[in-house]
Amino acid sequence: MVRIKICGLTSKESAWAAVEAGADAVGFVFASGRRRVSPDHVREIIRSIPPYVTTTGVFVDADLNELNHIAEYCQLDVLQLHGNESPEYCKLAVRPIVKTLHIHGEEHDLIGEMNKYKPGARAILLDTYVAGESGGTGKAFPWEHVKELHLNASIILAGGLHSGNVASAILQTNPFAVDVSSGVETNGVKDSFKMEAFVRAVRECHVAQRFLI
């Protein structure tokens, strides 16, 4: 079954809405941007949500000591890195790493870049390249680039996903998980109805795949 992460949560209310919608993982952004939250606030949110929900911190080129301190202080389960962090940096993190690679186009040597990170990263997240942005742009990349590469690692698909296109994205790329943020927002605020619709679309796609096998 494809796992679901809802990212960019900024309040207890939005975190609980994601959990109640059926998300397997929730994400909190510690990098600069409108979804940024403080470690104190995230720690409080995480303490309020039930067990067996994977908590993820999103970072962009953070100081390694700061990264590890926040991971332990907030009791994060996974660290998601969206910057230019090196493979060596990933190996020194105190929590499992998901490394984000941004898709530039067909000429992008994705396999070569993935192979550099595979020893230190638990999974690879594929997102859309947008100049000056590290994620959460709501823009999709051509999914056929992933399908044609026959990637042999745990892939998390992100970038422009929403309830209307996530099933098609899953069928084309067969990812381990999908990651959504802006696709479940209304006017920049997390929308519980859109979260529920997104989770439902992923689950229904899984059921449809089982009948096709």
Automatic annotation (TrEMBL):
Pfam families: PRAI. Transmembrane segments: none annotated. It catalyses: N-(5-phospho-beta-D-ribosyl)anthranilate = 1-(2-carboxyphenylamino)-1-deoxy-D-ribulose 5-phosphate. One of its GO terms (molecular function) is phosphoribosylanthranilate isomerase activity. Pathway: Amino-acid biosynthesis; L-tryptophan biosynthesis; L-tryptophan from chorismate: step 3/5. GO terms for biological process: L-tryptophan biosynthetic process. Residues 4-200 form the N-(5'phosphoribosyl) anthranilate isomerase (PRAI) domain. The keyword Cytoplasm does not apply. InterPro entries: Aldolase_TIM, PRAI_dom, RibuloseP-bd_barrel, TrpF_fam. Its EC number is 5.3.1.24. Keywords: Amino-acid biosynthesis, Aromatic amino acid biosynthesis, Isomerase, Tryptophan biosynthesis. It comes from the Bacteria. Signal peptide: none annotated. The keyword Amino-acid biosynthesis applies. Belongs to the TrpF family. This is N-(5'-phosphoribosyl)anthranilate isomerase. The gene is trpF.
